[in-house]
């Protein structure tokens, strides 16, 4: 099976590498020539543009930053894809953009599913992502052999766009946990308690979470190399609040977390990992 892979960043690059390891032929494209070159070094084929990556592909995967990039790339995928192409967008974008992509794809016989992921760079590298898939049941089943090489939890959550709504829910929970872990660290340190020891106990109890497992040590050491950039989480909080508005519901904690993420960005931390929410909570408490 030939796979066209577009967007070879922090997530896309290891995901494409896993597809290569699984024996798929992968043709990759990214606006960064350096990232295309790295895929070629791993045994993939470098493409000169989106159209080149799509030509001859049975499946196209996109892993792009945000809705505008998908809105730019998806029409080319749909136009230049071969008949019956399966298009799997794994970027985190607005649900309505995914619905629009699926609608336009269906009009020309391209099968499109939205399949955003959770699990971070570690999950992408290890092939253990959680993947929430929206689309027609038969298209989701067709995508499964590819998705199973990228993740271990793959759930069909509803029609086109539903994957993105689940991802929005995921992001508000993740943001909330980072905010509260940050507050726990600030409380422990201000009280003269070793935060590393304190968080070790939390990790083993009811407050335990994947975030505490993976990030408590780096947070305590103030190591904030991304990972998942604050800029991207800011985008995701916007998606979550817009989804809440569209659904007519009030999510007060999500609103607060969105403001903390906005503050991190305003303080110049947009390129840091989202665990850098700690810097915002620290600054709130600085003398
Ligand atoms: P990234 O910025 O590292 O990667 C995006 C890549 O897309 C970059 O290499 C960029 O050059 C490329 N790109 C941008 N516009 C393009 C275009 N028009 N054509 C081709 N390539 C283009 O971002 P990432 O961290 O890999 O995240 C990608 C998506 O996955 C985002 O939607 C993000 O929200 C989501 N996500 C990220 C993580 C994470 O931990 N990093 C986890 C889950 C989901």
TrEMBL record:
EC number: 1.1.1.60
Gene3D superfamilies, A to Z: N-(1-d-carboxylethyl)-l-norvaline Dehydrogenase, domain 2, NAD(P)-binding Rossmann-like Domain
InterPro entries the UniProt entry points to: 3-OH-isobutyrate_DH-rel_CS, 6-PGluconate_DH-like_C_sf, 6PGD_dom2, 6PGDH_NADP-bd, HIBADH-like_NADP-bd, HIBADH-related, NAD(P)-bd_dom_sf, Tartro_sem_red
Domain 6-phosphogluconate dehydrogenase NADP-binding, chain residue ranges per copy: 2-158
Keywords (A to Z) from UniProt: NAD, Oxidoreductase
GO molecular function, one term: 2-hydroxy-3-oxopropionate reductase activity
Keyword Nucleus listed: no
Pfam families noted in UniProt: NAD_binding_11, NAD_binding_2
Residue ranges of domain 3-hydroxyisobutyrate dehydrogenase-like NAD-binding in the record: 161-281
Family listed: Belongs to the HIBADH-related family.
Protein's recorded name: 2-hydroxy-3-oxopropionate reductase
Source organism of this protein record: Nonomuraea salmonea
């Amino acid at each position: 099976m030939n796979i066209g892979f577009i967007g070879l960043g922090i997530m896309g690059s290891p995901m494409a590498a896993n597809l290569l390891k699984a024996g798929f032929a992968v043709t990759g494209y990214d606006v960064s020539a350096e990232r295309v070159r790295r895929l070629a070094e791993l045994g993939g084929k470098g493409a000169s543009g989106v159209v080149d990556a799509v030509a001859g592909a049975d499946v196209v995967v996109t892993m792009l930053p945000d809705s505008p990039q998908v809105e730019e790339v998806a029409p080319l995928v749909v136009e230049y894809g071969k008949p019956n192409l399966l298009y799997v967008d794994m970027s985190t974008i607005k649900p309505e953009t995914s619905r629009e992509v699926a609608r336009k794809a269906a009009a020309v016989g391209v099968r499109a599913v939205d399949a955003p992921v959770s699990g971070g760079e570690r999950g992408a590298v290890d092939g253990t992502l959680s993947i929430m898939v929206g689309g027609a049941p038969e298209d989701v089943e067709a995508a499964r052999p590819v998705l199973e090489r990228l993740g271990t939890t793959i759930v069909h959550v509803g029609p086109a766009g539903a994957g993105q709504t689940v991802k929005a829910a995921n992001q508000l929970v993740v943001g909330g946990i980072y905010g509260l872990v940050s507050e726990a660290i600030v409380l422990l340190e201000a009280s003269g308690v070793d935060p590393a020891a304190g968080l070790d106990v939390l990790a083993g109890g009811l407050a335990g979470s994947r975030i505490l497992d993976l990030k408590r040590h780096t947070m305590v050491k103030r190591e904030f190399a991304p990972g998942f950039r604050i800029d991207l989480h800011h985008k995701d909080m916007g998606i979550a609040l817009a989804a809440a508005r569209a659904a007519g519901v009030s999510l007060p904690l999500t609103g607060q977390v969105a403001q903390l993420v906005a503050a991190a960005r305003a303080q110049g931390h947009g390129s840091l990992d989202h665990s850098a929410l700690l810097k915002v909570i620290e600054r709130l408490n600085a003398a």
